[in-house]
Amino acid sequence: MKRIRYGRIAALVAASAIALTACGSDPVESGGDNGGNGGNGGGSEESLSGDLAGAGASSQEAAMQAWIAGFGSENPDATVTYDPIGSGGGRTQFGEGAVAFAGSDSVMDDEERAAAQERCGGTDAIHLPLYISPIAVIYNLEGVEGLQLSPATLAGIFNRQITNWDDPAIKADNPDATLPNKRIIPVNRSDESGTTENFTEYLAATAGEAWPHEPSGDWPLQGGQSGAQTAGLVQTVKGGDGTIGYADASQASDLGVAKIKVGESYVEYSAEAAAKVVDESPRAEGVPEGDLAIDLQRDTTAEGTYPIVLVSYLIVCKSYEDAAEGDLVKGFVSYVASEEGQAAAEQAAGSAPISATLRGDVEAAVESITVGS
Amino acid sequence: MTTTGDPAAKPARPGKQRAPQRPGDLIFSISAKAAGVLILVILAAVALFLIVQAWPAIQLDSAELAEEVHWIGEAQSLLDYVGPLVFGTILAALIALIIATPIAIGVALFISHYAPRRLATSFAYVIDLLAAIPSVVYGLWGGLWLMPKLYPVFDWLATNLGFIPIFEGPAADPPRTILTAGIVLAVMILPIITAVSREVFLQTPTLHEEAALALGATRWEMIRMTVLPFARSGVISAAMLGLGRALGETMAVAMVLSPGLLYSFLILRPGQQQNIAANIALKFPESSGVGINVLIFTGLVLFVITLVVNMLARWIVSRRAEFSGAN
To answer: Which residue ranges does the record assign to the ABC transmembrane type-1 domain (chain B) (predicted)?
Structure first.
């Protein structure tokens, strides 16, 4: 098994090396090719070849594997690799020019933007929100279905101020449910995670005084139940009675999933509602043209949006000097943004596919990437 | 059992002077020597690696440390961070030892002195098999099978013995506590303590045993008068070997414990303690820069603790040797 895989990788490397040499030997003609590729929207007809390296957020890892596999089957001569070293590491490597694109859960700061600009030959780097992962509030409480929670109640539970399921605050959110007199066992992630960071960001943005902690990837409180990784957390929630936790929505399995109060109504998690909050949120301010970084409105009141989401970006240059690299980036990002790519990620990682509106914006941004100079 | 060095050393000396040397002798002695040196080199390399890699964290003062590593609080020194981890590591290992040692001695005595010969052999084999199970599997077993069964017990302890400080409730549900981790660890270190104890029990001089029986001792009295005194040092070193394994256990602990960084003796509450190895496994994937150096420093501390425990075991064994029934 292993030997076969090594053989395949070796073959790919060899093939791409040959392809690259071919490109290098005749720059004029390859330049002509690039124009053609850009014209037909990322080379879906002509297959691309070469090596493309990316690095960054581990949250995208599962989706990225699906994208790499899907892109690879369309372009058998192209090899994409992704090193899930974490968002910060990915942005650093991108700035240093070690990788052609980065995956990141957060937007670059000014320093990183400057490094990226240098790396992109004077042009800016842009953020493309291509991975939306909804976070579900899961609970295990016998006899209670369709639990409804307002942000303040949710924060009170996770801040351990609300300790019993028949607390008046929970009753107020669930006028029709019969809530048992049972202690609440909040469960958090024991390892540092983007899920925790986004969940605490949501609480900090919406719950006001009920959530006095700073958003962070590490859970701010000590002395509670916790589980390592999503699987450990889900298992802990399952293992107790009266437990409540938060996890990637795809992993909620057969546990109860709470509806979250947005505006005046309680919204059940769905892929559409998660994608909608990204559409409803305005673009981040002060970003270069074509940059699709968003200022996620966690406290949105728009109908039918689900605000507890993790949004992860692909960071790419607006211009690539190396034509082969640029074409590959354009081809790969186009695939990731395509319906097919988003469906592959949904299946592999349980992410929410981006909306058609956002897809249009991403396609326009990819189109504007210039290749070869 | 524990002093394997001596008998080998004696015949080697005269051999150097006059025994005829064949190529095989030379090759074997060189390869044996090389293997012996290699293990020392590896040990030294590991120690060196730990020190070199931990150094960037050691030389920072606490303010710099808090800035570089976000999970270290302000005004918290490196030792402040490691302290609770050391506490948790030792607590979990001690719980395991307290549970496992009596059971292991019982099992070993059963195999060596009570069970019929044929049963004893296959029984010993089954016990040894426990040692071959990977710790991830123990973690799964502890998390999925054992925990639901432990909760009623823990709940009972918390309700009825809650006045004893360590059993203060309410008991965690699911019971992801240091006591569960200790129980899983106890099962994991059972085979090694049993195997070593069994070998030591079997080495009791038959003449001693027969003399005791001839004086009218029952089997239990015979064991108490001859086997146990003779084996005492061996059992202690067996327990220390088990302790060494329990100290360094990673996956099983990471999978059954809700971690926390407190100096807490509450063994029925979640999120109180954490052990060093599990903490490294948990924190490493998302760490970078000095964070990794801090984790490696905790590894260095664990290395030192294990070294001290082993040296302590040696010391106890050598001190007890003269009092044991062996002489």
So the answer is: 86-313
Are both A29 and A120 inside the same structural domain? yes
Q: Does A180 touch chain B (CB under 8 A)?
A: no
Residue B175, min C-alpha distance to chain A (Å): 8
**Is A98 contained in some domain?**
yes
| Burial profile A69-108: b = 16 or more Cβ within 10 angstroms, e = fewer | ebbeeebeebbbebbbbbbbbbbbbbbeeebbbbbbbbbb
pLDDT digits over A109-129, tens only?
A: 888 899 999 999 889 999 999
Whether residues A239 and B147 touch (CB distance < 8 A) is answered with: yes
Please determine, for residue B80, whether its predicted confidence score (pLDDT) is greater than 70. yes
pLDDT digits (tens, 9 = 90+) for B153-194: 999 999 999 899 889 888 888 999 999 999 999 999 999 999
d(CA A159, CA A211): 7
Q: What's the whole-model pTM score?
A: 0.80
Contact A217 B286 (CB under 8 A): yes
Interatomic CA distance for residues B301 and A37, integer angstroms = 57
Q: Do B71 and A192 touch (CB under 8 A)?
A: yes
What is the least distance, in Å, from the CA of A197 to any CA of chain B?
13
pLDDT, residue A1, reads: 41
Is there a contact between A218 and B70 if contact means CB atoms under 8 Å apart?
yes
pLDDT at A86: 81
User: For chain B, what are the domain ranges?
Assistant: 60-323
Q: Is B222 helix (H, G, I), strand (E, B) or coil?
A: helix
CA A274, CA A304: separation in Å to the nearest integer?
Answer: 9
Instruction: For residue B8, name the pLDDT band (cuts at 50, 70, 90).
Output: very low
Nearest-CA neighbor of B269 among A246, A220, A160? A160
Q: Looking at this predicted complex, what is its ipTM?
A: 0.78
Classify domain B60-323 by CATH number: 1.10.3720.10
Residues 242-271 of chain A whose Cβ lies under 8 A from any Cβ of chain B: 242-243
Of the candidates A191, A218, A240, which has its C-beta nearest B173's C-beta? Answer: A240
Q: Say if A285 falls within a structural domain.
A: no
Is the CB of residue A58 less than 8 Å away from at least one CB of chain B? Answer: yes
Mean pLDDT for all residues in chain A: 85
Please state the length of chain A. 373
| Cα–Cα dist A140/A213, whole Å | 25
